[in-house]
Amino acid sequence: MFLEEIDSLLRKRLSPEEFKINNEFYGLQYGNQNSNSVLKKVMLTTDLNLESIHFAILNKINLIISLRSLINKPIDCFNKNLVNKLSLLSRYPLSIFVLNSIQKLIEDI
After folding, report:
1. What is the pLDDT of residues 48-98, one digit of tens each?
2. Are 64 and 96 in contact (CB under 8 A)?
3. Alpha carbons 21 and 33: distance in angstroms, whole number
4. Between the CA of residue 27 and those of 4, 9, 16, 80, 108, what are the distances in Å?
5. CA–CA distances in Å: residue 28 to residues 6, 64, 77, 80
6. What is the largest CA-CA distance in the chain?
């Protein structure tokens, strides 16, 4: 599938943008903005911790779909954990799509 097709599917069917939580990031947060990118492997996760990023790299995942974003608030200082995540992501061709709005849907149910 192409990145554009997955993006459209996520935004229209699974997690519409109108349900997003205020001041939270939604959509493609990191990665290749080229909509013609072919995605062969997709991973779902609740949190973008170092373990999930390592797993994605080792298994050659093209797209990570996460409930929580990589950065949740403005950066006032770079902690070691954030630097490690950004360092890993800068070396491998991964894209990250954040679905913060689905959390609101789960809370409503």
Report:
1. 899 999 999 999 999 999 888 887 777 788 889 889 998 998 898 888 888
2. yes
3. 23
4. 12, 12, 10, 25, 21
5. 11, 10, 23, 24
6. 39
Domains and CATH numbers, the chain: 3-108 (3.40.1390.30)
- Residue whose tokens read 């990191």: 30
Reported as a single tens digit per residue, the pLDDT across 21-43 is: 666 777 777 887 676 778 889 99
| Sequence-ordered strand ranges (E) for 1-109 | 27-30, 42-45, 63-66, 95-98
Residue the block writes with tokens 């349900």:
19
pTM of the model: 0.76
Token code pair at residue 2 = 């192409």
